[in-house]
Amino acid sequence: MARINLLPWREAQRRHRQRGFLLATGAALVAVLLVGLGVRVQLERMIAAQQSRNQLLEQEIAQLSQRIQVIERLAARKRDLLARMAVIQRLQASRPMVVHLFDELVTTLPDGVFLTAVSQRDDRVEVEGRARSNARVSAFMRNIDASRWIAGAKLLVIETEDQTGTGLSHFRLSFKQQPPDHDATQAERPGLRTSARTTAG
């Protein structure tokens, strides 16, 4: 019976399998490296794109901030102009009111009553004066309440002639100045001007 030596063939087959395994391992490593390199390149591209978007957003935010500052300056200037216009309108409206105030003081002042001081704050007026009697002060307050331009008389201080030692009562009162509602005023107080000179003994 013939004997065949299979050792060289087996050794060759083993080396062939080892070479195939090494080639497969190397191919797998190369594939992994290529995939990793591709992922890294893609990530770098994504990062670069995001940084570019961030820079664009920062530029837009800077432009918006400048526009907001301009808008705020314009709004402040608008508020300043509106405040000045309001002051001018109040001054324009108060010019005839002052004239009417002194006209009403003359009209509503009864005989025997003399004013020594007049002061005004906003629409509130305070007067101080002398009167021959307390009844004349009451008549003055009634005339104020019957007026078209002033109302709401309130007595603050009154000293009788005995207290002052001058034979005249000293008084201080306040009232409110207001623009009249002409239709309502004329309908409700037709005899205003004739009753404004009410006097008391």
Report on the architecture of this protein:
The chain starts with 6 loop residues before the first helix and ends in a 6-residue tail after the last helix. A hairpin with a 2-residue loop joins β1 and β2 (124-131). With 201 residues, the chain is an alpha+beta fold. It folds into two domains: 13-97; 109-195, Alpha-Beta Plaits (2-Layer Sandwich). The protein has helices at 7-108, 134-145, 161-164, 182-188, 192-195, and strands at 113-121, 124-131, 150-159, 169-177. The model is unreliable at 182-201 (pLDDT under 50). 64% of the residues lie in helices and 18% in strands.
Keyword list:
single chain; 201 residues; alpha+beta; Alpha-Beta Plaits; 2 domains; 4-stranded antiparallel β-sheet; 5 helices; 64% helix; disordered C terminus
In a nutshell, what does this entry contain?
The protein is an alpha+beta fold and 201 residues long. It has helices spanning 7-108, 134-145, 161-164, 182-188, 192-195; strands spanning 113-121, 124-131, 150-159, 169-177.
Topology:
Blueprint (H helix, E strand, L loop, with lengths): L6 H102 L4 E9 L2 E8 L2 H12 L4 E10 L1 H4 L4 E9 L4 H7 L3 H4 L6
Antiparallel strand pairs: 1-2, 2-4, 3-4
Low-confidence stretches: 182-201
- Strand segment tally: 4
Task: Kindly name the structural category.
Answer: alpha+beta
Largest sheet, strands/sense/barrel: 4 strands, antiparallel
Helix content: 55-70%
Number of domains: 2
CATH architecture label name of the largest domain: 2-Layer Sandwich
Average of the residue pLDDT scores: 81
Question: Using only CA atoms, what is the Rg?
Answer: 51 Å
Shape: rod-shaped
Strand order across the biggest sheet?
1-2-4-3
Question: Could you tell me the strand content as a percent range?
Answer: 15-25%
